[in-house]
């Protein structure tokens, strides 16, 4: 095996892809309420700023997720524009996001669609990129009260229906994706 260093351009591409995979893993962990996986995506000393829900230690934020998520019947994060800049083992990202939430309230179900961005700081420690700081930025929000979601529409009859938690059909369909695993599951 050679000790030759990689071309810096190739190393930058690999680092950016690893960070992009981290962003996607975050969306999956949030949507499936997979808080074990979520925990594996942050460094132990990371910070999370999540609007009214939380500001402080990311690990403490993840500890509060079950109570935050208990009324959320649907979570669906979709990433569009990803801007990442690298500086050695540090990086920053501005990640555009559209996040759909169906929330159970005392008055019934409501839909909340948020367009925003994540302001992220990442660090590569022991060869692995993780979040060191994440801040949520809301650019716009659309609320439908009552909810307009119809999971019984004939167009989706017979389809698998996504659910939070391990009851999501992905966990019985896939063999390689496992509950609670971060980006680098142990073999």
TrEMBL record:
It comes from the Bacteria. Residues 12-134 form the SnoaL-like domain. Coiled coil: none annotated. InterPro entries: NTF2-like_dom_sf, SnoaL-like. This is Nuclear transport factor 2 family protein.
């Amino acid at each position: 095996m050679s000790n030759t260093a990689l071309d810096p351009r190739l190393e930058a591409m690999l680092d950016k892809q690893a960070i992009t995979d981290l962003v996607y893993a975050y969306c999956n962990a949030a949507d499936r309420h997979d808080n074990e996986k979520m925990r594996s995506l942050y460094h132990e000393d990371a910070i999370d700023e999540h609007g009214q829900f939380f500001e402080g230690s990311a690990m403490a934020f993840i500890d509060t997720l079950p109570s935050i998520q208990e009324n959320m019947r649907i979570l669906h994060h979709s990433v569009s524009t990803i801007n990442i800049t690298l500086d050695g083992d540090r990086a920053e990202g501005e990640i555009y996001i559209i996040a759909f939430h169906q929330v159970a309230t005392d008055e019934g179900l409501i839909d909340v669609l948020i367009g925003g961005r994540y302001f992220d700081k990442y660090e590569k420690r022991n060869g692995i990129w993780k979040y060191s700081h994440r801040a949520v930025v809301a650019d716009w929000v659309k609320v439908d009260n009552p909810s307009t979601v119809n999971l019984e529409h004939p167009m989706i009859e017979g389809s698998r229906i996504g659910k939070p938690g391990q009851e999501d059909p992905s966990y019985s369909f896939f063999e390689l994706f496992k509950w609670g695993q971060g980006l680098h599951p142990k073999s």
